[in-house]
Automatic annotation (TrEMBL), chains A, B:
Annotated protein name in UniProt: GDSL esterase/lipase
InterPro entries: GDSL, Iah1-like, SGNH_hydro_sf
Family stated for the protein in its record: Belongs to the 'GDSL' lipolytic enzyme family.
Originating species: Senna tora
Entry superkingdom: Eukaryota
Gene Ontology molecular function, alphabetical: hydrolase activity, acting on ester bonds
Keywords (A to Z) from UniProt: Hydrolase, Lipid degradation, Lipid metabolism
Gene Ontology BP terms: lipid catabolic process
Length: 248, 248
């Protein structure tokens, strides 16, 4: 059975399956080596993610180890919605910061229970461009657009910090996307399409960071074998031998 | 467990995972409804594909139906390499046409054995642009390029016909890509990048044909539920209820 890499998160993970998305690029990088499964849920916060946990990552895996296997790696990429401000137009998505940390802990603990060897990577939310969010709201609702921001970069930065702290506390790897993106001049429009979601270049940053952290751990496509022989390795007069070797 | 759609084939399936590929578009269309798994093997013909069959589609599925499930649909997309000419530079990939038909029969029979309800779609090889193949060979090898074509459109057309005949004989659906592409003026460069592999527009044709045939059977993403509630359906004061309903 081919190893699986699961990308678990909100819309930024769900949309990673679109053309130019970081999930697509990752899947292509692991072509014939691992399957990349997208488990992205637009609009979800960590509170709602908890309801999915046992179905997406069933402990049943432990009982049927010959036929099913947990993923070799999982990225956990929530926080952009948790950080929506209380008392503003996206209030329903808001999760208090301590609860956000506790929810991340629950997710990581559950994954560790599924597999002690799973590579777990926490990803912080990307930064917020408030101007971009305003322009987006106005493009949708015109004069009826909300007057006050529903997310700020400052508050999202607190959630990013909380995510990093939780990763360090739990001893799992992390990507501080909030900080990383802001190292580049013009990140507001270069990486964000509507002040929150990712442009093609923003997707490329996530792809580069995820592959970097995977490699720094132990998960490098260059070191993984193809699932079956490359066609050039097959002796056309005696094809069996290439496949027998593979099975040894 | 989310339904799976498997794309089984040669390089034209393997490359479908690249940006703009038909596999990526298909995966995006079935986002949160089914996983699209790419099982494409560049350079492979149906003879070599047979060696993979029991590992990619294990009959073990029948024994562990609670934990593992066969795919709901599989595309079988071989023939471009089988149709390489005997006695020419790609001879090692050549499979005689009657053996090609017999191999397709074996693949289909095996999939039917795995699951009597699996939607099976045979796809013929695309047409060949001999001029494009020559230009490609010269771009690689210059004056040392082979003088005689290794594939011709006429012979590939015979394999396409054999593929259609086999599908009709076995009562499974098919896509005659060889014919379909040639309905469009300028198909040689519009759909083929090197006289054999697909351009972005060529990928779009395969995507459209596969989704059409899937829908004509019964597999339509529009009629499939999301795996979990859309975020707008979640009552933020009582999120449990949305997920309880889902479990009923």
């Amino acid at each position: 059975m081919r190893p699986q890499i699961v990308l678990f998160g909100d819309s930024i993970t769900e949309q990673s399956l679109r053309a130019g998305g970081w999930g697509v690029d990752l899947a292509n990088t692991f072509s014939r080596k691992a399957d990349v499964l997208i488990r992205g849920y637009g609009g979800y916060n960590t509170k709602w993610a908890l309801f999915l946990l046992h179905q997406l990552f069933p402990l049943m895996w432990l009982l049927f180890q010959d036929t099913t296997k947990p993923p070799v790696a999982t990225t956990i990429f929530f926080g952009a919605n948790d950080a929506a401000l209380s008392g503003r137009s996206s209030e329903r998505q808001h999760v208090p910061i301590e609860e956000y940390k506790e929810n991340l802990r629950k997710i990581v603990h559950h994954l560790k229970e599924c597999s002690s060897t799973m590579l777990i990577v926490l990803i912080t939310p990307p930064p917020i461009c408030e101007e971009g969010r305003n322009a987006f709201a106005q493009s949708l609702y015109g004069e009826n657009a909300r007057k006050l921001p529903e997310r700020t970069n400052e508050v999202t930065g607190q959630y990013a910090k909380a995510c990093v702290e939780t990763a360090e506390e739990l001893g799992v790897r992390f990507i501080n996307l909030w900080s990383k993106m802001q190292e580049t001049d013009g990140w507001q429009k270069k990486f964000l399409s509507d002040g929150l979601h990712l442009t093609a270049e923003g997707n490329a940053v996530v792809y580069q960071e995820v592959t970097r952290v995977f490699k720094e751990a132990w998960l490098s496509p260059d070191e993984m074998p193809l699932d079956f022989p490359h066609h050039s390795q097959i002796d056309y007069k005696n094809p069996e031998s290439a496949f027998q070797q593979k099975c040894l």
